[in-house]
Please model this.
Amino acid sequence: MDLWVSAFTGMTGKAGFGFMASPASASRFRYSLGLNQPSGSPTVKRITEMAEAIRQETEGEFLIEIFPESRLGPDPKMFADLRGGTLEFFVAGATLGEVAPTSTLPLLPFAFRASKAVFAALDGALGDQIRNELAQNGIYAFRHCLKNGFHHLTTSARPIHAASDLAGLKIRSPGGAIARDFFEALGAEAGYVPFNQMYDALKARGYDGQSDPLGVVLSLRLYEVQSYLSLTAHWWSGFTVLASAAAWHALPREIQEIVERNAEKFALLQRADIEQVNAAGAEELGRRGMTVNTADTDSFRARLAPFYARWRERAGPATWRLLESYAGEIGG
Model:
């Protein structure tokens, strides 16, 4: 089956599902993990495999129950629950900027040209700075993030050939200040609805388009409610697996080591899955009826000098230099 439509064997389709030890009451620790991704996505597949591997290696002492598709609430609620200690694990997208300002920087438009460079930054020193900021706010972040990929634009009314085509459009974005600032710089309005409500919002024409990697467009079947795919690769996004620090530190060290090892293993597998899906995405979406074009991204960059100046000032010289040590010169 295609990666973007395959369901992982063992998913029940209920409000929450996971791999329960037998008997479940024998487990010393039972934690919940919330995320917004579709049940049939490679991300949920690999996270669920991770939970099963952890269950097996701990001989049922540690169970993680997986709640996909925002079943525990939209991302802001899940993040608040994590910080409040009522949710143990959360797979976060672009929701960390208020507590970890550095986490927004990999989303800077046209900063990175390849996922390899992004992962070098996030697995390395830039990621260390983000993880330290999160730790100061009671959040434990696993080192190896998951991949979402480079974003492109889908629209219902017209294709985006150049930056001027965005004028007056309302675009659903992942949220956050960078997205708002970016689209405003191009004459568009950025808005947010929870991931699991995006299809209906686009169908109802509450938004003219949206920004996401190609795998997301496929997973959510957005080709049914959007006519045009404009290839822009305007920014990169990923997911960070987070734990409540209190819940994490409650685990014995031997269980933590098992979780860390499997978090890395399945993050790397998920990255490879998403790379495969995104690489074939444009062709697949064309087959599913979308009109595909490659946008003139130089026209985007030409209008972003004030945008980059604002974000360079916010980041500060040291952090900006660290970012550019991985990405190369930004906005030059």
